[in-house]
Amino acid sequence: MLTTNDIIEFCNTHNYDIKKTGNARWIDQKCTFDVTMAIADCILNFTENEPGKIFTTKDIWLCPYTVENIENIFKKPDVSSNAAKNEYDKFFQQPMELFAAAGILGKIKKGGRNFYHVLNRDLLEYISLREKNSLLFLQIYIEKTLKDSGIIDLFNDFFKEQNKDSYKNLKQGFSDFIINNTPINGETECNRIFIKVLNPLAYSKGLKGTEHGNLSKDNITYDMLMYNRYNFRDTYSDKPKQITRKEHDKNSGLKYSTEAYYKYLSNKAVNYLKKFNNQYRDGLSEHIDEYNSGDAAQIHHIFPKSEFPEISYCLENLIALTPTQHLNFAHPKNKTDETCKSYQKLLLLSKTDRIKENIENSEVETIYDFSEFLQVLKTGLNDERFLKISTNDFEQIKFLINQNYSKY
């Protein structure tokens, strides 16, 4: 997987100066990290068997993979309906225009239509893998664009002194700059873009940003950056046990279907880990015992996705096992709705070793995130102590795992 330095180096090879490009669509309303992640994934799927394939916005939104996922996740209209065209134009084209402006996609205009092709598949794959990757790319790309355009000081001044006056100066300065250097000629449209520029940077600094057209009352939080404004993870965790997920989604006012979104993220992570394990570990099981011989053809959720959907898509919660390990031991007697706690402990210890190996091996792409692993353990074991562990202290992780399973 690419690193932060790789993303920075990529952006440094491009000049994103808006004064020179005149590009008003270098970022836009729909360019939240969750949407850009999903669109990157759809593009990769569409071009999987033909990496140099030329495509349009409509090609991506009508492909079966997109129809199966995007309609369900983001509650968009049926792609064949009359209501779909304008909505899908924005939803797909805005992130694709961002990718083109960044140099990830190439773009050619013919007869009023935009035709795209993939220029940097590695970066597109990085963005598509998980939300945090997409957010990190956006933060680096936005900051580089502001620096190249000579307006980063406007933002830095606001971050140094967060009050109504500094906010007003930043908002007006940004609007004036966009109107003077791009085809956009109205403040309303500038303000729609402004939130997508300011808030990812504010979040990365743990500071205030913009909300409802004003200085936010509190520091910007993760959920405020999503296409779905509500923090559906917290909302979902509070779901009454007597109602279904679908009923909860409908009544909560969420733009997402949480069930569909988690399923999508989980399936994507499972497929990715399977490919990684086949490529870099010769398809061997990640847990060594007397039943590990043969191909690790199955990917197991260490903490079940039915109980912990909020970590079901984390690579750190997935482990490649042989069918015997998976169906006879991880799930006793092939009962997939049950988990053997003593075997779960062993799998967590093995996964700790695999993550340690991956993080420390500079010759293999790093796919795991230590802090994400701590979050998985904290959630799955309901133990806040994991979040206090020092970076890469794998021995302390094992110590706490053993403590949590002392009765098994």
Q: What does the largest sheet look like?
A: 2 strands, antiparallel
Record field, number of beta strands = 6
Overall structural class, as computed from helix and strand content, comes to mainly alpha
As a percent range, the share of strand residues is: 5-15%
State the distance separating the first and last CA atoms.
Answer: 36 Å
Uncertain spans: 230-256
Helix content: 40-55%
Radius of gyration, whole Å = 23 Å
Q: Any idea what the shape is?
A: globular
Please work out how many helical segments DSSP would assign. 18
Produce a short descriptive summary.
By secondary structure, the chain is mainly α. The chain contains 18 helices and six strands.
Secondary structure: elements and pairs:
Blueprint: H1 4-12, H2 18-21, H3 33-46, H4 57-62, H5 64-74, H6 84-102, E1 105-110, E2 113-118, H7 121-129, H8 131-148, H9 152-160, H10 164-181, H11 187-205, E3 208-211, E4 214-219, H12 232-237, H13 245-252, H14 258-280, E5 298-301, E6 318-321, H15 323-330, H16 341-360, H17 370-381, H18 394-404
Helix pairs in contact: 1-8, 3-6, 3-7, 3-8, 5-14, 7-8, 8-11, 9-10, 10-11, 16-18
Description:
By secondary structure, the protein is mostly helical. It has a domain at 262-404. The protein has 18 helices and six strands. The chain has helices at residues 4-12, 18-21, 33-46, 57-62, 64-74, 84-102, 121-129, 131-148, 152-160, 164-181, 187-205, 232-237, 245-252, 258-280, 323-330, 341-360, 370-381, 394-404; strands at residues 105-110, 113-118, 208-211, 214-219, 298-301, 318-321. Strands 1-2 form a two-stranded antiparallel sheet. The protein has a two-stranded antiparallel sheet with strand order 3-4. A two-stranded antiparallel sheet has the order 5-6. The longest helix has 23 residues, at 258-280. The radius of gyration is 23 Å and the shape is globular. The relative contact order is 0.08.
